[in-house]
Amino acid sequence: MEYLAKRRTRYEIYADLLDIVARKGACRLTRASYGANLPVDRAKKSLRFLTLRGFVKEAVFEDSKLYKITKRGLEYLETFRQMRRLFAALDEKILPTPPIPPPSPMNVQVRLSCPSGTVKAGEDLSILIGVSNIGEKPVTMSRVEDAIPPGFEVSAKPNYSQLQGNTLDLKGTLLPPQSLQEIKLTLRSFTKGASRLNPKLVIKDDVGRHMMLEPEPITLHVLAAMSNRVGTGYSDLDRLLIGGIPERYAVIFTSISCDEKDLLLRRFLEDGAKNDQTTFYLAIEAASVKALVERFPSTFFLFVCNPQADSLIESAPNVSKLKGVQNLTEINIALRSAFRNLAPSPSKPRRAHIEIISDVLLQHGATRTRRWLTGLLPELKSRGFTVTATVNPQMHSPVDVQAILDLFEGEITIHEKLQRGRTRRYLKIKRMYNQRYVEDEVLLAKRALEL
């Protein structure tokens, strides 16, 4: 019995580790080792054991591994303290530590509410977590775990909080006795379906005791994105557009020449062809779309405007070879010939991409290019086409570029930023006439676009 009094059992060691982790909220290994009076290697082994059994969980913050207590760990700690007091009452020689008077209970209630549990994709959803302290002592609100359900992102949160993964750190916000505080979150999702919101509020009393409170969970429903949209083939862009480009819109991409732009537009073309949507592509080169020409002979149509077209690609029913961009009438004739083979009333959206605008602008100038597009764009849209185009603003004067841009209902830009000595390219919607869209910018990762 004397031996037991001098040396801790493994259950006492686990309790000491859980206690220091609970009191710190998020605890590093060295701090846990020091607080539990254990060598670092033994503390690490014990924390690993507790993690595997669900008593603590690991998190990474600023390249450091942190340990956080779970609900199961809190239950163990509270049970251990109760058993310790019982052992002391039976035979104080077993555990000579005098009985610890139980702290006054925390009397806190938490309620989860949502004015509208059903929204359309891309719309904001307001969440309220109401916390009432009806006790006689203040409590500290530590964090809200599982604050973000799968498929959602946070568009607004309290300014005193910080988001770490799907945990909302409340920075030890004080909740006085007999008071109420609302934690307001604004969520947004672009994924159709139902998600269960089941947040867990961790609070602490004035003696360092933690408690986890779980309000009644609610189910959030996200309806389909806006109808009459044409997907771009790139989910991040569709998210910004809240579903895709509006049908029969003409949208222009302003971008320097770069791989990311080419990969993005190839996705747009492939998405149309593989979904059995008639897809037109007007370009100078053909190398990047040879595979599409061969894979989708009935839906993908290539118009090569190049004097060397015969050497660029083999002849096929879905390939039109033109002498170049010098003769705009020839391009119009080739398009009208293709129109005659289409059904007058399309059952599915159609799409067209015009890659030759910068070449036409250099060859014919702004006035004639504008006149050509003024006739072409309405005709394409009247036949059920959603039109995209590209122009390189660095190749032309700002006046010439502006003469072209205002012919399109929407403009999407790919721009560069220098970050940490490395050039990165971002995608952003600059305007979309009479349509809602997300004003964020998205990093264009070449590897992701290639998938």
Biggest sheet, spatial arrangement of strands: 20-19-18-21-22-17-23-24-25
Q: Major sheet: size, sense and barrel closure? A: 9 strands, mixed
Radius of gyration: 32 Å
Basic shape = elongated
Q: Give the count of structural domains.
A: 3
End-to-end C-alpha gap? 66 Å
Structural class: alpha/beta
Number of helices: 13
Q: Classify the fold: give the CATH topology of the largest domain.
A: Rossmann fold
Strand content: 25-35%
Going by CATH, the homologous superfamily of the largest domain would be P-loop containing nucleotide triphosphate hydrolases
Q: What is the level-2 CATH architecture name of the largest domain?
A: 3-Layer(aba) Sandwich
| Mean of all residue-level pLDDT scores | 87
Report on this model:
It is a single chain. By secondary structure, the chain is an alpha/beta fold. The protein has three domains: 89 residues, Arc Repressor Mutant, subunit A, CATH 1.10.10; 116 residues, Sandwich (Immunoglobulin-like), CATH 2.60.40; 222 residues, 3-Layer(aba) Sandwich (Rossmann fold), CATH 3.40.50. Helix content is 32%, strand content 33%. It has a nine-stranded mixed sheet, with helices on both faces. A hairpin with a 2-residue loop joins strand 1 and strand 2. Helix 2 crosses helix 3 and helix 3 packs across helix 4. The termini are far apart. The N terminus is likely disordered.
